[in-house]
Amino acid sequence: MNKLLIATNNKGKVKELQDLLKGSGIQFVTPSQINLELDVEEDGVNYEENAGKKAIAFAQASGLISLADDSGLEVAALGGAPGLYSARYSPKPRAQDKDRRDFLLENLKDKPRPWNAHFHATIAVATPAGSVEFAEGNCFGEIIPEERGSGGFGYDPIFLMEGLGRTMAELDMDEKNRLSHRALAVMNAMPILKKMFGL
Ligand code: ITT
Questions:
Q1: Is the CB of 156 under 6 A from ligand 1?
Q2: Is ligand 1 within 6 A of the CB of residue 101?
Q3: Confidence bin at 1 (pLDDT 50/70/90)
Q4: Number of domains comprising the chain
Q5: CA angle at 142 for the pair 94 and 121, rounded to the nearest 5°
Q6: For residue 108, what are the domain limits?
């Protein structure tokens, strides 16, 4: 049976996507498992363009149906920033997740709270022939000024989940994978995947 390639270089996303796909009946591999190193330039004007570009590039390079995720954090008080640029949001060279969280808090410090925000994820599933289909998910909450929790990745320690009173980094993998933008996007992508894999 054909395998699905999890088309991302982000270790946090790889872990979550592996967990989200287990039990689906779909066999999957990661880029490192097939020795595929591919860095796709993310120059699209929206999540769909970037997700589609990544999924198609990985599908063509591997010959496997590929699932890419383009995601971001949108903060209302910053007009939706960092949004599409969430992975690159820091003036520091070789910035890490912590640098990006610090930069976000620096930019928010003079703005009145609550700092309402949501995570967005667009999933693209592409075939090596170049056809591509999309699904998306959102998760709402607010940014808080102190880090809480050690799970997840990226902006999770400063993202307080709406109605839960815990940050995304205070959730275990099972909880994050029931509630997150990525979990909802994968759930919405399941009919596309099942159709492509004949399940
Ligand atoms: P790939 O393109 O290889 O998938 P990337 O990290 O560059 O990896 P994106 O361009 O989609 O991926 O950037 C998404 C960024 O948004 C990510 O690096 C985090 O900073 C942030 N982000 C997305 N989902 C998140 C989550 O579940 N928790 C925390 N931060 C998240």
A1: yes
A2: no
A3: low
A4: 1
A5: 60
A6: 3-196
